[in-house]
Write a structure and sequence with these properties.
The structure is a homodimer of 342-residue chains. Chain A has 342 residues and is of the alpha/beta class. Chain A contains 13 helices and twelve strands. The first copy, chain A, binds a DNA duplex (30 and 30 nucleotides) through α2 and α4.
Chain lengths: 342, 342
DNA sequence: GAACTATTTGTAAGCGCTTCCAACAAAAAT
DNA sequence: ATTTTTGTTGGAAGCGCTTACAAATAGTTC
């Protein structure tokens, strides 16, 4: 064992074992034929010298890094952390490392990260960003970096897509709401820069309302629990009723708590729900109704698709995840006989 | 712009610009002297060829990767995500990338990850693991990988430490509880494999009780919100009173919700608090009392320490974070005149 | 304008590994 | 005993870059 010494190289191992570089390389890569005797000899000197192959040099020589770049807005959202977790599990199974690129919801930073991904020489990338358009992203494909793009359709030979589908369930939920006894005005919580998914849902929300000729509101709010909570505490001083749809459940939780803390009853006076559902939705009381997609599964799926892409064995280049309605106590169940509604 | 072509190398740039490799290298690294005229010429051909230096080759040649390895149990905990977020911010500021190594709370995997960190040729590492002992970790230092170790004292020339201090506040809180009107039996929620921090706190908890001659309980529970919630729903059928200390706030939230949902009053019948405090603590009702440390700050600090370590400018090799008592409504405030206790 | 210095550029040797190809030895076939 | 086949090794080039060091050019000074 060497302590505080310079890195042991394959050359030193070869010398110590009395063989050539090539032979050592063969035993560490377990390929090519080596006599059991010499293999053992080499393995022993590797162990006694404490040799570790340099991933860098290997990568340069083989043109494979076994490294995947992951582009996300920030690790600080639970749904992103879930997504990351899914990726991590599969990456470990498949022997890949992950390099994180976080864009902080800024288009500029996102572009910069894409550049970084390209020069960082990753074998592939998973891109879950909400600021770039498909042209920005297809740029990465032109540099021969296989990529799986989340929540966006980007085409290219080495690009696969994971798409979310909130449309159907959102539309259906809104229409059912009005067709039963929906007596509250619906509001959609708009968050600046929250990205495509939200923007798309917002459009659907508006469209559904216009189709039904119903009045609605768009409320601008902050992507922060505390600020949203404070805002709604103020809001509920004058507005004592409403149905709110937020992007993330932690924002919905802010509305819910503000309502409860303002002496309102959820769901009688105020109904709330969100698109993204994480553990927050289960922890609040009443629990939150969400249109949910399991982000852990999305991460896993994305990583599987990427490894298939790298092995040229990916057949279906687009995966679609349909949001499911997960009922909580924050809305009134309007299905069937409405047992909860008195 | 080249599309779908092989990587453009520095050699091609040199040739196209009619200069030598060395000159191109000088302009991309902005060092050594180059005539403005040739610089421009080179920059132009770089742009027109769409050349990007290979980080890999640079790293191999300079022996610097500008890459930091981050070892964590899992990204799926909010406090870890917060920590990661702090690291990310500083890393971006300092121009480092992050490679993630997740150990899944397994000692075996953790050891494996340490090996990976070593051969991945990172410039440094931040290690927040709960399974390894200091000997395991000091192993990494012997391979000349500068490291900042979280929540553990590891010594070595190139090792720095970030330590947490829950002892004082925990001891003080327990003793104050009994010296005022603490009438409920205290229980500590033990989670298998949750690591050092918890184990240490548990010891302190027991010690404080023995010093005061008070009865206490250790409850084994799962590191999962749902399972803990179910367990305590059962538990509260027969036990209608108690003071519970959990490790993470989401576990504490499970106890809190189970109590409320069982018709108990928090904090009158059941008091709950946790060591780690995240957004969960603010979202539940009543809010949770926690012994909190701002993990985002911990991440930032760790990364600053690491960059200083890499620049040989780190003076204080140990940083200590004291946990603060953050009062929520899940416990009865026993300071002063106990206004909430009627 | 010669002698010298400062600045800009090119040459070539690595960084630590893989891998093709040739060389050789041992086993099998004739 | 000789040729062919199979299996095991070593030599050497190359992955894309950096960086002494040498060479060449331009700029000073007397």
């Amino acid at each position: 064992m060497n302590n505080e010494k310079d890195r042991v190289t394959i050359y030193q191992v070869a010398k110590a074992a009395g063989v050539s570089l090539a032979t050592v390389s063969r035993v560490i890569n377990k390929q090519g034929s080596v006599t059991p005797a010499t293999r053992k000899k080499v393995e022993d000197t590797i162990a006694s010298l404490g040799y570790r192959p340099s991933g860098l040099a290997q990568a340069l020589a083989t043109n494979r890094t076994t490294n995947i770049g992951v582009v996300i807005p920030s690790a600080n959202y639970v749904y992103i952390a879930n997504f990351l977790n899914g990726i991590t599990d599969v990456a470990k199974e498949k022997g890949y490392s992950l390099t994180l690129f976080s864009t902080s919801h800024s288009r500029e930073e996102a572009l910069q990260m894409i550049e970084k991904v390209i020069s960082s020489h990753v074998d592939g990338a998973i891109i879950f960003d909400d600021q770039l358009d498909s042209e920005d992203i297809s740029h990465i494909a032109s540099y021969n970096v296989p990529a799986v793009v989340i929540d966006q359709k980007v085409s290219g030979e080495k690009v696969a897509n994971v798409l979310f589908n909130y449309d159907a369930i959102l539309d259906q939920t809104i229409k059912r709401y009005y067709s039963r006894r929906g007596d509250k005005k619906m509001s959609f919580l708009h968050v600046h820069n929250a990205g495509r998914l939200l923007a798309h849902a917002e459009k659907k929300f508006i469209k559904a309302h216009e189709e039904m000729g119903k009045d609605y509101a768009i409320i601008n709010c902050d992507d922060s629990y505390t600020r949203t909570y404070n805002y709604f505490c103020e809001y509920f001083k004058t507005n004592r009723k409403g149905f709110f749809i937020a992007y993330r459940d932690s924002i919905a939780a802010a509305v819910l708590n503000a309502a409860t803390d303002s002496g309102l009853n959820v769901p009688k006076d105020v109904e709330v729900m969100s698109l993204v559902g994480t553990k927050y939705a289960h922890i609040v009381r009443p629990t939150l109704t969400t249109f949910s997609i399991d982000m852990n599964e999305v991460g896993k799926r994305a990583m599987y698709m990427l490894t298939d892409l790298l092995n040229h064995s990916l057949v279906e280049k687009t995966a679609k995840f349909d949001a499911e309605l997960v009922r909580g106590g924050s809305t009134i169940d309007r299905s069937g006989s409405d047992p909860d509604y008195r």
